[in-house]
Amino acid sequence: MNDLNSLKYTAEHEWIAFDGETATVGITDFAADKLGDVVFVELPAVGDTVTAGDVCGEIESTKSVGELYAPLSGEVVATNETAVDDPSLVNSDAFGAGWLIKIATDAAAVDALLDRDAYVALTGGEE
């Protein structure tokens, strides 16, 4: 599992881990819990360009259908096909094996994202 304090977050409940100019993106455990049992994940294709704030995928659960928003603009360089094949990973390991996409992006974009304290405050103190 990632160090949750080293991650960045969005108001749409995505987490972002930076490794140089590659950002790994997933949904938070808070979002996964609110969705319920995830049964389907649709992700953009490798090579697709995504724009920050735009819908780039879909996550379906037994309760509802949610949209995956691109937290940053850039090119999709990897998708987690394991999570597509086994969507339950989004629930069981949201911050690890349940990651969704990797985006090649400008690391300066981090300034527009939330830190852990701001994200916890956004969710009403629920972690």
TrEMBL record:
It comes from the Bacteria. Belongs to the GcvH family. Pfam families: GCV_H (PF01597). This is Glycine cleavage system H protein. The glycine cleavage system catalyzes the degradation of glycine. The H protein shuttles the methylamine group of glycine from the P protein to the T protein. Keywords: Lipoyl. The modification N6-lipoyllysine is found at K63. The gene is gcvH. It comes from Microbacterium marmarense. NCBIfam families: gcvH, PRK01202.1.
